[in-house]
């Protein structure tokens, strides 16, 4: 196996680590590319997995330290860059560590705490490996992991949506919102729902989270008439969750929303409309007249 082939074999793991560390598709891809450059210039490596994981994790830690001040000055709620995929007919159980709720929760950890927690709890690295990667003793890493678990445990997201139920609720949510059906909207959202909109100061968005069913419903029904002309909505899996991606008339992404669902109701909506965070979403491919039409509102 060539050196490049060895790297490609590990690329999915490296991206998974980097994306969870940074919450950014573009930054994660940049980190993986930098790791590739270093890999090509490295001498003999006994364990490619250990070497590459170490390079990616350390690059992410450095980037998080430099980004902390920018996050504090961010305009409005900060949400991760969305990962969007086609909805599956029978979606698999959600990987909660990819969910927006989980990635936002990780923001409460320091860069090193985040690295230790993810490597141990998500990727099942041994403490000896983690100690080598982050440059701390094994005993220290055990303490860091324990503190991080305690910090995360109380707020860790839990999802009990069954396959297909989430998509059905999201469709009812969209249909009620687009038709101005206040009562229909209130039937699918929980009383304690929260809506976050991340515009990053680039586009108009709510500067603070909106709490409560009535306030969320009124906000949505108030802003939808102001939506750009020709806006199209497609159902998707966003960070593994039931979601939507909205597109401008020219096919570029306008926003992506992930829905937290529990107890048969939508409990949270996280909607990213900052255009800088949507560059990783491919443009909408128009179907030819010979193709069957995709179900969904336009």
UniProtKB/TrEMBL annotation:
Interacts transiently with the RNA polymerase catalytic core formed by RpoA, RpoB, RpoC and RpoZ (2 alpha, 1 beta, 1 beta' and 1 omega subunit) to form the RNA polymerase holoenzyme that can initiate transcription. Belongs to the sigma-70 factor family. ECF subfamily. Residues 170-266 form the SnoaL-like domain. NCBIfam families: PRK09636.1, sigma70-ECF, SigX4. Keywords: Sigma factor, Transcription, Transcription regulation. The keyword Cytoplasm does not apply. This is RNA polymerase, sigma-24 subunit, ECF subfamily.
